[in-house]
Amino acid sequence: MPQLPFDTVLIANRGEIAARIVKTLRKLGLRSAVAYHEIDARTPAVSMADLAIQISGNTPIASYLDTRQIIAAADQARAGALHPGYGLLSENAEFARAVTDTGIAFIGPLPDTIELMGDKIRARNFVQSNGFPVTPCVIEEDDPATFASRAQAMGAPLLVKPSAGGGGKGMRIVRDLNTLEAAIEQARSEAGRYFGDARLYAERHLEYPRHIEVQVLGDRLGNVVHLYERECSVQRRFQKIIEETPSPALSQELRARICDTAVRIARAANYRNAGTVEFLLSGDDFYFLEMNTRLQVEHPVTEMITGVDLVAEQIYAAAGRELAFSQSDIVSNGHAIELRLYAEAPERGYAPTTGKVLLLEYPNDVRIDSGIMQGQHITPAFDPMLAKIIVHSPSRMESVLKAHRAVRELVLLGCETNANLLARIVSDEAFLGGHFHVGYLEQNPHLAAGNFSAGMSAFLASAALLTRPVRDSADAVPELHSALGNWRN
Amino acid sequence: MQRIGSAADVDSQEFRRNDLHNRQLAAELKERQRLARFDRPEKDIERLRRQNKLFVRNRIAALLDPETPFLELSTLAANKAYNGEVPGAAQVVGIGIVAGREVIVHADDSSVKSGAWYPLSVKKIVRALDIAIENRLPVVHLCDCAGGFLPLQAEFFADRYHAGRILRNQSILSRMGVPQVAIVMGQCTAAGAYVPALSEYNIVVEGTGAIFLGGPPVVKAATGEQVSAQELGGALMHTSVSGTSDYFATSELHAIAIARNVVARFHQPAKTCIDRVAPEPPAYDASELYGIIPEDARAQFDMREIIARLVDGSRFDEYQPRYATSLVCGFARLYGYQVGIVANNGVLFGDSALKGAHFIQICDKNRTPLLFLQNVTGFMVGREYERRGITKDGAKLIMTVSSASVPKFTIICNSSHGAGTYAMSGRAFDPRFVFSWPNSQISAMGAEQAAGVLTHVKARQLARNGGRLSEQELAGIREPVLEEYRERSSAYYATSELWDDGILDPVDTRTALAIALSASLNAPIDAPQYGVFRM
Amino acid sequence: MYHSFEVDGVDHTLWLSASRHGYRLHLRDEVIAPVAFTERSDSSGILTIAGQSEPVRFVIDGELIHLHIRGRTRTLRYIDPLGAYAAGNDGTCPLVARAPMPGRVVAITVSPGDSVSAGTALMMIESMKLETIIRSPQDGIVERIHVKENESFEHDAVLVTLSKEGF
């Protein structure tokens, strides 16, 4: 195999994904460099990378969004390529262009593709015009004055979304048309803040569809393959919590159809890297939702069942190599599940939590993509995802059992997490049976609420026995009086 | 040690009759105690609520370590005095556990006459502090007292054991190195002001607690100065200006938390070590005591049946079992502690007194605490016994009882009369604790006997004036005399007057004694030392 | 006076007493005995409770006891009675608006000296991708604003102090 045209890659990201990318760079014999904000100094990526370059900004997040500083860091590291990870600048076409213009390979699709797919309205139109199914939709910029009334005419339930959005940011479901105006206002405000682009669109909201997405991989020569689907329906507030592959909802025939559709969409878009085509599945019908022009958080489940290192493939694609395999070489083997560990309290409306990681122990025999380490402070500055637990087994049932064991063995003390919720979901009957959809958690609030008092006595007993004043007061009482207990004459 | 083989027939008519009777007495006791503890006019409860004060029982519950015993003393003090209007003499006293320490709790009960001190209140407090001194127990005072009840001041102010004794005892405790902490939860006025002041530590509750020699009305009358109670002696003033108080508490519970913290820091001297093994419950059920104590106080019963239901494993190592059998002496264990038991099985003779005197000296030398179980009508009388010197033998017993250095505990199980009361470690002989059973009677002589004597005296007076009384007239004199005599020799009268430390339901005796015994070991046991025995 | 632990905003009172075999745990409506805890390392041990053994991972951080038992994680806070009772009954405590969750200030809509009524919007915060409006808990006057726009804050941070009119 010819040598890669670069020997150093700058990772313009943080957390678990930065650490995960470092691992592949090491495997490929490439130097890794990370740009990091001070607040992240004590994180796995910074300690693992060959080189760590500090960047700064008004807020931690602003430093990671500062194109100038990131490119300067790449220069400083003498990086020949840049991996944007997911989120942050990963789907920013201007950034991709700026990187490419400095002669650094951007590990991702072409800026034009990012631009096309990044604009949700253009992407929908593009997909629709190529003959693929999309949900009914009204677009604000077609006629801003009548946007609300056109949305109203489409009827409830509907979804108001930012044109430039992604990851659920700024999205609002409208079930009561009386609240439409307010939802539009709020979505507009959030869109403006997150994406600097206040344009909106509204689409038919399918009640309780499944979220199915297909991993695709393209190269410079126009080859596109899929790596099967991922089932991502276990969500809260549009945020995925548990992903798996294969999806328990797809027949062989439907799987082939949906994967093939994804490949054709990617091919139409001249797609040349790793990407994901997202669909909503309702019955046997599926509709294009959007295409993510980057690595997905949940990519590891695909890696587990296909044995393909997606980050390595991204790097090869960026280096201009041809895909080393064809569609028929990609075999789906077994079943994989990913559980996302968040710093949040599902019991309190998923409120984010903070704290210092005082004790961290991961389970054995499973893949952990971790963005945290012991001693690290969890702050509200970033997305609350801390780590991912990925299990792989021959069958779905074995995977689910393994996931349940793993999440219960995971020990993270010092910052509240959603681990209890994850354990409850993977032992829930509906989940075990594969019967769920994007409204699953909303319809089963008991999963988030948890059983408040379950096992409380063991916790109280441990706390009592570990608290000196409590133990001391027990030990101080003379033996006779302890034995007599609450006696009264 | 041999186990006592009980001869009681639990199926017998007699046992069942006794059982019914004594269970009724126990139920009556519980009811009277309940009323004395909790039965208050609604207006008094309402007043406490208005003042943002907790009821004294709730204060004590918060003070004590949970899941530990509280031996309440003299619950029915003053039950026969002041028309029954001052239950418990407006005081709650007991031995409890605070932060693991055995302490005396002394609390004014402001739900009764605003916690005013009556003569028997003073007697109860003095006794509480005597217990603290004798047993070296730290004291927690919960002060909430309106001051002395002036109409009766002649009965509690000036004498040796009147209110001044409280302050004297506090000072003595402090000199002995036995610490006290006072929580000021109401106004501490005049002599009451010195209770917190003489405590090593005191805490004042903001808003309700105050300490001053003269309250606002007294100040106004004396100098014309207008001043509020809080300004005059409130928590803020005393903790930041006068230094009279140590800790400022924002609420009663806060004050109690501070007090618990203070007690936790008290130095805990090692307790006196006496022979002890692992405890063992009695082989016989304590509730069988109800069937053994006779309904008729004059009926004889074997005190070993009582012992079998008090001591560990019902094992009793009897001393001189064949000699002077009207006084049963021997060793047993109570919650593992070795004790020497002296119990009446009939009237005291000269040889009984000699046996008792010898046994007490053995226990004293052996550092074995003594338990007296009283059922005694007195010493035998008659020419024969006087000639044999029963008085000088009785004197030997009284000498040993008075002089023994080991802790003594006395239970008045049934009768307690005449010199028998004294020779069996009555109140005057400073046993660490005296408890009565509800059926018991205590007096110089038995009621029937006494009524006979009194009626005879009266009849003689009349005869001297030439009158002669018919049987009916004699009965007319005898009945009221008997009635009053019975009333005044009852356990309720005795406890009302603080002649004991409280009436016990017989089934509670074993536990009460264990708590008392444990408390007594906080004080050292001196070497035995006696006066002159008349030989 | 019982001991108290706070878990998820709820107080649990309890008492531990020694017995011949380990300890007895007295809870509000049950007694569990024996209970015992054997420490295996700084952060692990075995809880014996009613005849069962449970591995426990723990970290003690001041008054906070973080525990992991049987796959569940909980944080319990020991309530020191001295502090707890002292804090209560404090009538002079100023009115404050606190952060319901950690987040970042988006926009502040009042200024010090403004008179507000209960429910008046004080600021907009952003947390979990959602904007939330912090409203005045009571009528009063804005005395102090403790955060700036774009500033991050932790859960329960004091955002705005109000004073009562006529105070």
Automatic annotation (TrEMBL), chain C:
It comes from the Bacteria. Keywords: Biotin. Residues 87-163 form the Lipoyl-binding domain. Pfam families: Biotin_lipoyl. PANTHER family: OXALOACETATE DECARBOXYLASE ALPHA CHAIN (PTHR45266). This is Lipoyl-binding domain-containing protein. It comes from Bradyrhizobium pachyrhizi.
